[in-house]
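hey m, so remember when u said the C-alpha cells were messed up on ur end? i reran from scratch. heres the input so u can diff it against urs
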Amino acid sequence: MFPPKTLKPRGQVRCFAALLGGLLLALAPGCERPSGPAANAEPPGIQKTVTPSAAEAPAVAPSPQPAPAAVPEAGHLVALPGADFEDESLRWDFSAAPGIAQISPEAASSGAKGLRLDSREDDTGSFIASARLPVDTDLSYRLTWQGRVLSGAGTNIYLRFFDAQGTELLREEGRVGTDKGDRWTAGRLNAIPPRKAVTMDVIVQRPNWRPPRYLIDLDAFELRAAPIVIKAPWAGTYLLKPEEKDRLTEADVVCPDGRVYPDWTSAGVPGGIPAMPVALTLADEGARPGEDISARLEQAAAKVSAAGGGAIVLGRGTYFLDQPVMIYSSNVVIRGAGNDKTRLLFRYHVPLGEVSFFRVKPGDTVGQNAVIEFHANPKNLIRLELRSGDEVISSRTRQDHWGNTFAMRVSARQVLGLLGEGAHVFTAIAEYDGGKRVTRDIGLHLSNEATGEIVPQQLGAVNFLGRGVVSERKLLAEDGLRGSRVLRFSDTHGFSVGDKITLVAPASERWRQLVGHASHWDIQAQNMYEITAVDGAAVTLRQPLRTAFLAVDGSYAQKIEVISNSGMEDLTLEQQVVPNQGPRGPFIAQTIWHAIEDLWISGVIYNQAWGCWLKGVTVRNTGRNSVYFPLSKHIEVRDCLLDDAIFKGGGGTGYIGFDRSFDCLMDNIEVKGMRHAPNSQWNAAGNVVRNSRFDGSDGQWHAGFTLENLYENNFIDARGKGGSYGHGLYASGPSSGIHGPQGPRNVVYNNDVVARKDCLHMLGSNEAWMILHNRFVTDNGRAIFAKEKSFDHVIDGNVFVLRKPVAQPVLLGLDSVGVELVNNTFYGVKPPLVSFTGERTTLLRDANNTVHADVPETLPARPLPAVASLFQWQRDQAAARTQKASTTP
C-alpha cells in the first residue's frame, strides 16, 4: 500500500462565486439519465466574495431572501449553419439517422420548415450532427431551441467540445421533454468549454435505450456566447456561523460541534406516540379471522371517534380487507396483537375483463367536492376514458410515468361544469393492447349542494384522511421571512387561534429564473402551521418559517382541516399477489416495468393528517408505497418493517419517505426491496430519518425543492436493481425537467452508505448542504459529483472508499463556490482529488484531507462524531429548557 498523502490547502484565494446564466455543468459519464428537458432558466446571480477563512474577512450578512431576478444578458449570436432548417443546402449530417431525420414543413415552429424525427419499428437510435464550429474558451455558450413530442418519448440534445486532435472532451446534455400533443416547448442548454477545446458542435441523439415509435419535431436552434463570469446563483443565506448572531434566527440551532443546523425538535408526534386506551375489540363487533373486515373497521372507527377516541383491537389471526378502508375521524388507532400475530391481507382486485366504479352505487347523489372514480385491471392497459353520452369528460393514454395505472378519477366539480346538475349516465372505458375494450355504465345524480367523501391523493389499503383546504386563499401582505413566526395579511383574513393552515409560495417566474426550475411543479415552498395568536392583520405561528414566503411571488395561506392523533400499531398488512395471473407480460418502455395484474395501491396512507403514527407494523408486498403521508405534519413511523413492493417501475413507486410532509420522523425502521428510500420530495421540509436500514434502495431528494431534512445514523445499500439509480445519495436538479431542483441545507450525518455508482450525486440548486461524518463505499463511482448551482456546502469528517479508480473523484461544478472540504479520508484515490468543471473554481476551505491510493482489505471504521446524534441532542436540550422554565418561579 502506498503511504497516505495529505493534500495541502490550495492557498488563500479570493474568487467570485457562481455562474452567469445558470450554466449547466458537466454531467459525468455513466451518470443516471436525467428525467426531463434541460430548459434551465438563467438567474442573474448576486456577486459574492469568498475567502478561505471567515476570520480573514468581515462577515457580510446577506439579504434574508433571494433578490428578484432580472433577465440576464443573452450574449452575442454565434452563426450555426442550418439552425432554422430553412436552407436545405445547409443540411446537418443525417447519415446516422437514415429514414428517421427529415426536413419537413410540418415540423416548423416558425418559418417554413423544421426537423422531424420519425422512427421505424426497427429503429435502434439516431444521431444528427451540426457542422463543427470554432470555440473561444473564454466564453460560455447557450443553445436554445423549440421542440415538441407528438408521440413516444423525448430525445437528447448535446453541445460537444473537441480538442485539436478531434477527441471529444465534454458533452453537455439537454432534453426535449415527454409532453404529448402539438404544444411547442422552449429548450435551453448551457455549457462552459474545457480549456483545451478547439471546436464544438450540436448533436441531436436518440439513445438506443429509448423505445422506437416516436415522432419528434425540432426547430429554431440558436447559439449565443457570453463572457464567463463566476458569480453566485443567488445570495446564500444558509451557511451560518455561530458568531454571526445577527444572522441567526429561531429556525437555527448551534450544536456543540460549532456548526449551525436546522431545528428538528418538532419532528414526529408532539410529545411522542401516546398509549391510546382500548375503546373496543373488533371481535365484539362480529369480526372473525378468515373474514373480510373492511366495512367493520370503517364503522368501528366512526363509532370510536364519536365516543371520544381510543384503540380498536384486533386479535390473533388473519383478517381480510377486500376493499380499501377509509378512516375520516380523529383519535382512532387500529391495534393488533403483534406484527407476528395479527395479519391483514389486502385482497382488493379488479378481474380482467371488468371495470368497476369506486365507492359509488347506481343512483347515488354526487356533490361538487366529491369525485367519480373507476378502476380497471392494469395488465396491458393502454387507455382510460370517462364519458357521458358523446361528451368525453376525461381520457388518458399510456405514456412516461404511467406506472401501473389502473384508475381514473375526475372531480365532480369538473363534471358539473360540463354537464350541469341532474341525472346523468357515465361510461367508463378501459382499452388494452391488442384492441380489447371493456366498458361499464352507471347512473348518478350531480348536485351543487351535496358534499361527498374525501379521497386520498394516493390510494392505500388503509387510509387516514383529513378534509384539507376549507377556505379561500389569503395573500400575504408582507414577506414572511425565514426564522419569523409572524405572518401579515389583510385585516379580513378570517383566521383564528388554533386554526391549522397550509402556507404556499408559488413557483413564480422570478423564482423559476433564479433556481433554474423547469419542472411542471408549480410550488416553490410549502408548509403547514398552527396559529397561536391573532392580532389584527398579524398572525403568530407555533413554529418559525424554515424559508422565505415572499409577497412578490403571490404567497398565500389557507385554513385546513386535518385528521389527527390516529394510527396503526402491532400488526402486519400485506397485499396479496394476484394468483394464477400468468406471465408478467411484455416490458413496457413507458412504465419501465413488465405488464402485471396486481393493483398499484399503497399500504397505509395518511393524507391531510397531523400527529399520526405507524408503530410496530410490518407492511409487506405493497403494490406501490408501504406507508405514505402527503400533505401531512408530525407523522411518526417507528419500529416498522417495510418489506418490498410488487411494482418496481417508474411513476412514483417503491418510495419510503416524505412527500409534502413536514416535521415528520422515521426512527428504527427496516426497509427492503424499495426503489428510493429514504426519499424526500415535493417541498418536504424538516423531516428526520434515523437509526434505520435500507437494503436495495438509494437515498434521495427526488423532486420539488426539499429543504432542511436530516438523514442520520442509517445504513443505506443502494446497489439494488429494483429501480435504484445506484448512487448512494442522489439529488435531482434543474436539468431534471420533471423532478426539478432541490432546496437548501439538507443534512447527511453519520450514515453508512454503499453504492454501485457515485457516493453523492447532486444535480444542482443545492445550497449549503452538510455532509458530515459518514462512511461511503462505491463499487464503481466518484466520491462526490455536483453539477449546477451547488454551493456553500460543508463536507467534513467523512470516509470515502472507491473500490475502482476513477478520474476526478470529486468533481464539482464551475459555480460550486464556498465549498468546504475538510478532514475527509479517501481510499482508492490518487491526486488530483478535486476537479471543477471549467477548471476555473477553487474550494473555500481545503484542509486535512488524506488520500490513500489503495483500498484496504478490511473497510476502515465509520467516523465517530463528537455528537452521536444531532436530533437527540437537540431534543435533550429542548427538554432541559422546558424543565428549567417549568421549575423557575
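this time it looks ok to me. The chain is about 5% helix and 40% strand. if urs says something different then somethings off w ur setup not the seq
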